[in-house]
Amino acid sequence: MGTGSIFITFGMIAGGYFLGSISPSYIYCKWTKGVDIRTIGDKNPGAGNIATVIGSTPAFIIAFIDFCKGIVPVLIAKNLGISLPCLIVIGLITVTGHDWSIFLNFRGGKGTLTSLGASVFLLPFETLFAFSVWLFIHYIMKVRFIGSVITFSLILFLTWLVSYRFFGEPKYLLLFPLGILVLFLMRMPENIKNFFQKRSTQAGG
Known about the structure:
By secondary structure, this protein is mainly α. It has one domain (3-194). It contains 10 helices and no strands. It has helices at residues 3-21, 24-33, 47-53, 56-79, 84-99, 112-122, 124-141, 144-166, 175-186, 189-203. The longest helix has 24 residues, at 56-79.
């Protein structure tokens, strides 16, 4: 890798983080309502909170933007000829920017849609199949984060089974779905705790 390629790669990594750090939900709420999205609803700067406190139409637009945030950096990087290991890093860094935004004092959303955007570009079959499962689980259970955990876990399993075992892709490809699963779980301790407390209360009558 030449010096120019190194600078391009590091530029794309930095660009991925800064793009991921841009929060459309925060911007929309601030510009249209004059409030900080982190102070209303569930206080999460994401499309789900926008849907709850404002409405489904802006939430859909914001969800689409968050999804595209995951695609754009890896798409540009691939067109620049950046290698697959570096694409994996760029994808994970973009999600990290969404989760810990430099513009929001290193606070951010859960990263679900940005993770799916990067994943659908790098692992299209695995992601689309897992997302179909998520839709079914969400319809039955009505719990978003459980469906997301299952989705990201399934992407990891399918990457191992299909891309690595069947098609012979390099083993390091598994680092991407493993990384987005870990990043997601790092943002969900309260949700996980509340979920099991609720189930425990229901079981106890």
